[in-house]
TrEMBL record:
It comes from the Bacteria. Keywords: Cytoplasm, RNA-binding. Belongs to the SmpB family. It comes from Halolactibacillus alkaliphilus. The lineage of its organism: Bacteria, Bacillati, Bacillota, Bacilli, Bacillales. Pfam families: SmpB. GO terms for biological process: trans-translation; trans-translation-dependent protein tagging. This is SsrA-binding protein. The gene is smpB. GO terms for molecular function: RNA binding.
Length: 153
């Protein structure tokens, strides 16, 4: 199965709006207890999440996985720091690339692949305000063209 494919559970809609995504990478997530059940139910919010390299390991911050409804008192903390599973060579490359000015690791989507929860993280460079405006204009123009073609048919 290609990278990024599978049963998509959640998308970070602001990732492509706020960043130029230059490269993507698939990573596994270390989960506790009932977190996978909540992910399969789609109870994930990626709004303000980001990844960071710390002591040779990659961690995902601010990913909100809601507690499982049928869980017990040992449910997980919703916004805890979660470790991402990557190869050493991938982590070493990420360390070098994120130390450049303006680059950061952005989670793009969470999906289920072969029964495991995976995260597609992207190496992104932050957009300026005028870049965001330009993207919105381009989207609107494409919508107008598609609408005009639809009306013409």
């Amino acid at each position: 199965m290609p990278k990024g494919s599978g049963n998509v559970v959640a998308r970070n809609k602001k990732a492509n709006h706020d960043f130029f995504i230059e490269e993507t990478m698939e990573a596994g997530i270390v989960l506790q207890g009932t977190e996978i059940k909540s992910i399969r139910n789609g109870r994930v919010n990626m709004k303000d999440s980001f990844a960071r390299v710390n002591n040779g390991e990659v961690f995902l911050h601010n990913l909100h996985i809601s507690p499982y409804e049928q869980g017990n008192i040992h449910n997980h903390e919703p916004t805890r720091m979660r470790k991402l599973l990557l190869h050493k060579k991938q982590i070493a490359r990420l360390i070098g690339e994120t130390q450049q000015a303006g680059y950061s690791l952005v989670p793009i989507k969470i999906y289920i692949k072969d029964g495991y929860a995976k995260v597609l993280i992207g190496l992104g460079k932050g957009k300026k305000k005028y870049d965001k405006r330009e993207d919105l204009k381009r989207k609107q123009m494409n919508r107008d063209v598609a609408r005009a073609l639809k009306d013409r048919d």
